[in-house]
Structure formats: structure tokens, C-alpha cells
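re: ur question from yesterday

yeah so i grabbed the chain u mentioned. its 262 aa long if i counted rite. heres the sequnce exactly as i have it in my notes:
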Amino acid sequence: MANLDVALATISFKRKIAYKSTWFFSVLFGGWSLLAGLAVWNHLIGDGEIGGYDWDAMKAYLIIGFLTGTLAWAGSDWEMAGRILDGMVAIDLTKPIDFQRARAAEYIGGMTASIPSAILGTAAAVLLFRPAGPVSPLAAALTAFSLLFIFPLAFGISYLATLACFLTQRFLGIQWAKDSMVAFFSGMMIPIALMPVWLQGLAWAMPFVHFTTTPASIYLGRVDTAGALGLIAAEAAWAVGLWVIGRLIWRRLVKKVTVHGG
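ran it thru and got these C-alpha cells back, copy pasting raw so excuse formatting
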């Protein structure tokens, strides 16, 4: 099965890089969003600070958000949804291949294709805007480690979203809702620390927060080493939990589709 996972991931990777314009536009649009964010927050913060972020820290936060956003939206949501919407899932059910595991390999393979553009864009932003550095070498290492969990978390959330296609027979609205929740509750749009206390609690109770707020908090030293390890443990727990939830929902939906002759 491991060889099959690699093969599916490689095919997805090659499919992504075949369209080089996708790389270009992902960095271009992400770059404009980053520039807009920098302009707005520079005006708001000035020489002071907001929510514990001074200007240098906010620059680092926004650049981390650019990096995580580039990775988070690089998967193959529509490819997964398409297999359900066009009926290909019926053929998948006849194959001796685990549907969820195969989609995970394809999804993460597609995300991997975005790594070069994400790194280049982030490096350029760091050179141009000179953000605050990590509070320590250990914080830098833990931040990099926390970023690895974006891959299983992004797949888990996207997989659950695409499973809704069994019921809705549509995906566009689901994708919009999913992307909006990730952008807002991750802290990409606005730092979680600036939200009302009750909304902060809600954000931390969901997996989305680990896309941007967790790596930024570790990088900037807003949590100590024990807190950083706790956040990483929470990421791992969510990655496993989303996988299990996806598996349970898949089993129920497949039974329902079979009952109705699908």
C-alpha cells in the first residue's frame, strides 16, 4: 500500500506542476493579499501595538499567514468532490483500495507541489519586509514542525467537506463555506487575540486555529516551550480525530447510497 500511496501522490504532484500558471497566480494573489494586509496593519499599529503585536511582530504574523494560506489552499478539493459528483466513486468502491487513503495521497501530493512557491514567496517577503525573527532557535524548529501538520489537517477538513456532496450534489457553496471558516478561525484574516473572548474560545475549540495562529504563536514566543508542545499535540490529535471522523461518516454515507441504489 505504501508504494500505491507514493504513486498516487506523485501523479497528483505532476498534475499540479503541469499547470505552471497555477504556481504563478497562487504566489501573485497571495502576495497582493499580503501587501494589502501589511498596508492596513501598518496604518493601524504605527509605533504602538495591538493585541500584543508591535509592527515587527505583525509583519512576521502576516508572512506566516501567507505561507500557511498558500499551503492550506493548495490541495485538490474539486478532484475529490468530482469523484462523488460524477459517479466515479461507484468505480472506486469496486477497487481493492481504501478510498480515504487514496484521496489523502492525492491531496497531499497536490499540496506538496505548492511548497516551492510557498517557500520562494515567503523568502521574498522576509527579505523585503524584515519581520521579527523567531524568539529562539528552538521556537524556529517547533514552528517548522507545527507547519507539517497543515498537510493532514487540510486533508481532513477538505475530505469532510467533500463527503457532504453525497447529500447536496453540489460543492461550490460547501467550498466557499469551508474556505471562509479556515480563513476566519485560523487567524489568517485577523489575529485570534483581537477577537472577543467568547469567539477566541470557539476558535481554539476547532482545528482551523492551527493553520496560522499556532505556528505564529510558537514563532513569536506567545507560548513557552511547554505551551508550544501542547499546541503541537493538539494538532496531532485533530489530525487523527479528523481522519477517524471521516472514516465513520464515509461508512454511513456509503450504506445510505447503497440503500438508494447509488
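noticed a couple things. The two ends are 27 Å apart (CA to CA). also The CA atoms of residues 165 and 171 lie 6 Å apart.
anyway ttyl
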